[in-house]
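Attaching the record inline, Q. Sequence:
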Amino acid sequence: MESLFSKCSVIVVGDAMVDHYIWGDASRISPEAPVPVVNVHREEYRPGGAANVAANVVGLGGNAELVTFYGRDFAGNILEALAKKYSYGFSRSVALENVKTIRKTRVVARAQQIVRVDWEEKLILEKASESLLWKSLEEKASGSKVLVLSDYGKGMIGDERASRLIQWAKEQNINVVIDPKPPAKNGYRGATVVTPNRKEAEIMSGERIDTLRDAERVALKLRKELELDALVLTLGGDGMMLASEEGCFHYPALEQEVYDVSGAGDTVVACVALSIAAGLDYDVTSRLAMITAGIAVSKVGTAVVHWDDVIKTREWASTSEHIALAKEAKGGGPHVRS
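Structure, as predicted:
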């Protein structure tokens, strides 16, 4: 079945990184220290951060152009190779001297992560490098309707640059979807959609989220405060909360075993961006995001969700019915959440 997103293009700007996995077995304790000894079976590199967003856009059937800064180093070479492997555009990304490409190494034994080692330095852009960002955006992919800001707090986005990017997008008549990183917040004002998780929403709002009623209150508060079209709040096992001009609506999580939540937020923002590019209403957008998030957490490590994965789920049948109803409805708009 052809993807709903086959004609959709998205620009992704943000902190890209390499996720490095070392897979093996651990059956004994080291005589040197009370730590497990891992017998390595294989190594694997996957796109992380903004690169994982771009990879998920492609996996779901869309087109993605990644704009990021990275280093002229070993991990940077891997990042370039991953772009080719996962088929997202990388020609507008820029390799800089004296910049270290972010790499996160995870040692996994029998599907259990033992340790994570981060290789990173916060990116500080000089004026000359900053100008390269805007030059890359001026050469944006033709037909892109959505700009994703994937903010991991590593230096590519932040408040001031987020605000400028949103203004640029408005001038280009492009929607903006943001995966936020507190304490950055004020710069997100005026975006189309922001997709915080529970912890991020608590920091951004200054309030705890212990119940679904708390989640509803915080989602509505942040949407109003940041002047958003909608806010999608992910709640892990409690599902997802959508706040839009229609009100606030809860989407229960899929009933399934959770293996790893790494990268699930990247999958959600990719799905939301594509749904907006495809002209879907926020009800259908949230249903699809909930499905893709459920698929992502069922995989080990940061993973790409494919359109074929979506249509194989039992939730797809009801979601496709809502898509059909939305197409028939005059003026579109969300339908009853059931």
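The chain has ten helices and 14 strands. The two ends are 25 Å apart (CA to CA).

More tomorrow.
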